[in-house]
Amino acid sequence: MLRGAWVLERVIGTPPTPPPPGVETNLAPKEGEQHTTLRKRLEVHRSVKSCNQCHGVIDPIGLAMENFDGIGAWRTRESDSRQAVDATSVLPDGTAINGVVELREALMRRPEQFAWALTQKLMMYAIGREVEAHDMPQVRQIVRDTAPGGYRFFDLVQGVVNSDAFRLQGPAHTAETDKTTVASANPAK
User: Fold this and answer.
1) C-alpha span between 83 and 29 (Å, rounded)
2) In the chain, what are the helix, strand and coil shares in percent, each to the nearest 5?
3) Could you tell me if 64 and 101 are in contact, meaning their C-beta atoms sit under 8 angstroms apart?
């Protein structure tokens, strides 16, 4: 389920693994089959043990957002089956939720996880590259430093801007830039 995977990757910072090769990822009803709810199609998909490993985490989050259609408009009925949308779900930790408001409340019980994911995204944007293992101590320090203030966005941005990863970045060294540096240091007479 795309929404659940998006939340895991972008909001929580724990992207799901990609599906193994050869796994059918199109859960749309096949031509001529009776239209069922997405929930029922996902239940069939999760009955495969190898699929349930990831979908047991992805699907509960996505199902809580089922009232939104593909472009974000609110809906009360599924477009394929015309059945009422069921946005109830049980998260992997056992928390029962009903809809996006309760999902948000459940996710915000661990604000440091959201702050950690957001700080990584801010850092990636600020330094113009993926965050690497050697950047993680700085990310963790920013999150720790902003905890007393409730992880305010301003404080997270300020932490990123003041980090060594941002302040001490320079252009990548290549053979061409090294030649230019040597040439400018020793101009021809």
Assistant:
1) 14
2) 55, 5, 40
3) no
Are 44 and 151 spatial neighbours (Cβ–Cβ below 8 Å)? no
Report the alpha-carbon distance of residue 168 to residue 106 in Å, rounded: 38
Place of tokens 């009776």: 34
Cα 162 off chain centre by:
25
- CA distances 55 to 1, 83, 150, 165, 168, Å, are 8, 23, 32, 35, 41
Left (φ > 0), alpha (ψ -120 to 50) or beta: where does 151 sit? Answer: left
Phi, psi of 27 (to 5 degrees): -100, 10
C-alpha 63, offset from chain centre: 16
State if pTM tops 0.85. no
- Give tens-digit pLDDT for 88-130: 999 999 999 999 999 999 999 999 999 999 999 999 999 999 9
Six-digit token pair at 86? Answer: 């069921």
Q: Are residues 15 and 130 in contact, defined by beta-carbon separation less than 8 angstroms?
A: no
